[in-house]
Write a structure and sequence with these properties.
It comes from Saccharomonospora piscinae. This is Cytochrome. By secondary structure, the protein is of the alpha+beta class. It has a single domain, classed as Cytochrome p450. It contains 18 helices and eleven strands. It has helices at 21-24, 28-39, 59-66, 80-83, 94-97, 108-123, 127-146, 153-158, 160-170, 174-189, 194-214, 220-226, 233-264, 266-273, 279-289, 322-325, 358-375, 413-419; strands spanning 17-18, 42-48, 51-56, 72-73, 150-152, 296-301, 305-307, 310-312, 317-320, 380-381, 403-405. It has a six-stranded mixed β-sheet with strand order 1-2-3-9-6-4. The chain has a three-stranded antiparallel β-sheet with strand order 5-11-10. A hairpin with a 2-residue loop joins strand 2 (42-48) and strand 3 (51-56).
Length: 420
C-alpha cells in the first residue's frame, strides 16, 4: 500500500526524484526499489522542475493502464498541466509529450486509422532483402575500422545501423540519415535542444514527402502517400516521425545494451559465445534487464481513479516504468536459467499500443550483434564498465560510447574493396 494519503496529489507532494535519475544512475533497479519502498507501485516523480507525473513501477499496474484506453488515454490534450499552461511551449518534454497527429498519440478509432498504414507498411517489407541489406551495412561499418584495431561501437557501429536501415526503408540518402540521427538524439534527450531537433526532423521529412509526391518510388514514404487512411501531408509526416524515431532510438539502444553486456558481463558473454544460449534468448535477456525504453511517456487519466492504492486525478500524466516492471518478481525470477523463452517483459508495451515494429527491430539487432561477434576478434572494452557514459535522456538508458580494442584485420573485404 502506498504511504501517500488519500488527499495527496501530484501538486502537493514535495521533494520528488527527477525521472532522469532512473536512467543516469549506476544502479537503476536500486532507485526503482527505493521508490517502490517509499510510495508503492505508483510513485510521483519530477519530469522538469515543477512538472510532476506518476511513474508506474509494477508489471500488473502497467498492463492495467495500457489495456484500458477508456480510462487512460494516449492523447496529451487530456494532460491537465498542459491545459493549465504550466508546461511551457518551449519545454524539452514537448517532442515526446505534446500532441501529434500520429498513432502514438491517439485512441480508439483514430488510433486504429493511423496505425493501419504502419502495420501495412511493415507487413510489406521483404525480410530477406532487409537481412541482406542490414548485414551489408554492418560489414561495411566494421570494414571501415577493421584495420585500426580500435572503434567506438556506438558511434562507429550500433547507432549507424538502425538509422541507415530505417532511412533506406523511407528512401533517405546517407546525408539525410546523418542529419536525422543528430535530430533524434536531441529529441529523445528532452533537453534545451529538443525542440530544435524536432524541427529539423520534421523539415527533412517534409522535403522527402515533396520529392516522393513528384517522383514516387518503392519505399515506405511513397506507400504512406498512397495510403487512404492518411488524410494529409501532416499526418503522413507525423506517421514517418513515429516510425523513424521509434525504429531508430529503440533499436539503437537494444544493440548498444547487447554489445555492452557482451563486453562487460563475463557470464552473459560466455553463454552467448559458448553457444549455451541462442542469440534470440540473449537478446531477450537484454530486453528484460535494459529495455530500449526504460520509461515510456505517457498515459493521461480521463477520470479520477485509484491505481494500486494511489489516488490519480483526471488529467494526471502516468509514465510507464518498463525497466522497473521487468524486475517485478511476479513475472521475473532471479535465475536466468529459468527464463529461457519467457517473453512476458514489457519492452514492447502492452495493449492496443503494443509496438508494431518488434519483428524488424529484432531482425536488425540480431544481425548487428551476430556480425560483431563474427567479425571482431579478441574484442575488449577500452574503458572500465563503470566508465561507460550514457546519453542524457529521462526515457532511455543508451550508452553514449563503447570504446573497444581488437585484433586488426586488413586482409579481407577491406583490401578487396580497395583493389576493385
Amino acid at each position: 500500500m502506498s504511504p501517500l494519503s488519500a488527499q495527496s496529489t501530484l501538486d502537493t507532494v514535495t521533494g520528488l526524484l527527477p525521472l532522469s535519475t532512473t536512467t543516469t544512475c549506476a544502479d537503476p533497479q536500486a532507485v526503482y526499489n527505493e521508490l517502490r519502498a517509499r510510495y508503492g507501485q505508483v510513485a510521483p516523480v519530477e519530469l522538469e522542475p515543477g512538472i510532476h507525473a506518476w511513474l508506474v513501477l509494477g508489471h500488473k499496474e502497467i498492463c492495467e493502464v495500457t489495456r484500458n484506453e477508456r480510462l487512460f488515454s494516449r492523447d496529451p490534450n487530456h494532460w491537465r498541466l498542459l491545459n493549465e499552461g504550466r508546461v511551457p511551449p518551449t519545454s524539452g518534454l514537448g517532442p515526446m509529450m505534446f500532441p501529434r497527429d500520429n498513432a502514438y498519440f491517439a485512441d480508439g478509432d483514430k488510433h486504429r486509422r493511423l496505425r493501419a498504414p504502419l502495420d501495412d507498411g511493415l507487413a510489406s517489407l521483404n525480410q530477406h532483402a532487409m537481412s541482406v541489406s542490414i548485414r551489408s551495412i554492418c560489414e561495411q561499418l566494421l570494414d571501415d575500422v577493421a584495420h585500426t584495431g580500435r572503434a567506438d561501437l556506438v558511434n562507429d557501429y550500433a547507432a549507424q545501423i538502425p538509422m541507415l536501415a530505417v532511412a533506406r526503408m523511407f528512401g533517405l540518402d546517407m546525408a539525410r540519415s546523418q542529419e536525422l540521427r543528430k535530430a533524434l538524439i536531441a529529441l529523445f534527450g528532452s533537453g534545451d535542444d529538443s525542440q530544435e531537433g524536432n524541427a529539423n526532423l520534421e523539415r527533412i521529412l517534409t522535403e522527402v514527402i515533396a520529392e516522393r509526391r513528384a517522383e514516387p518510388k518503392n519505399d515506405l514514404t511513397s506507400a504512406f502517400l498512397r495510403h487512404e487512411n492518411l488524410h494529409n501531408d501532416f499526418e503522413i509526416q507525423q506517421s514517418m516521425v513515429l516510425m523513424i524515431s521509434a525504429g531508430y532510438e529503440t533499436t539503437t539502444t537494444w544493440i548498444c545494451q547487447a554489445l555492452r553486456l557482451m563486453l562487460t558481463d563475463p557470464r552473459f558473454a560466455a553463454r552467448l559465445r559458448g553457444g549455451r544460449v541462442g542469440i534470440d534468448d540473449a537478446l531477450d535477456e537484454v530486453l528484460w534487464r535494459d529495455p530500449p525504453m526504460s520509461n515510456m511517456p505517457a498515459r493521461y487519466a480521463l477520470h479520477h481513479t485509484n491505481l494500486s492504492g494511489t489516488s490519480i486525478l483526471r488529467g494526471d500524466a502516468l509514465i510507464l516504468g518498463f525497466a522497473a516492471a521487468n524486475a517485478d518478481p511476479s513475472v521475473r525470477s532471479n535465475d536466468p536459467w529459468l527464463e529461457f523463452g519467457n517473453r512476458a517483459h514489457l519492452a514492447w508495451s502492452a495493449g492496443p499500443h503494443t509496438c508494431p515494429a518488434d519483428t524488424p527491430a529484432r531482425l536488425i539487432t540480431r544481425i548487428a550483434v551476430d556480425t560483431a561477434l563474427q567479425e571482431l576478434h579478441d574484442v575488449a572494452m577500452d574503458v572500465a564498465a563503470d566508465q561507460i557514459p550514457l546519453l542524457p535522456s529521462p526515457w532511455t538508458r543508451c550508452p553514449a560510447s563503447l570504446p573497444v580494442r581488437f585484433t586488426p584485420d586488413t586482409t579481407t573485404r577491406r583490401l578487396a574493396g580497395e583493389n576493385s
